[in-house]
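Our consortium's second objective concerns turning raw sequence data into structural hypotheses that experimental partners can test. To show how far this objective has progressed, the report includes one record in full. It was chosen at random from the queue rather than selected for favorable results. The single chain below, 89 residues long, was entered without modification.
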Amino acid sequence: MGRTVPSYRQALEREIKRWKGFRRGLREKDAEAFDRMMNACRMFASAGSMATRSILLETMFMSILLHQEKVLAEMRECLVRLEKRFSQS
């Protein structure tokens, strides 16, 4: 019998732990940003497990980029609403 392959979520948590030293070296605000990025990876873990990428960091980076894109889209929509509100005044 072969070894059991860890789930994406297990592999993700292991990879995040491997970055503990890097996180410790960050300033508080940067560490908070790092934590948000890792949480973005966790948010898209279901999609990550479907990606079947051999390099875990590729899927992590894609999750972070997707989360960033969603945040930017929300900011754009908010900006458009504000611009409309102030142009009507």
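The partners drew two points from this record. The mean pLDDT is 93. The chain is about 80% helix and 0% strand. Both points have been shared with the crystallography group to help prioritize constructs.
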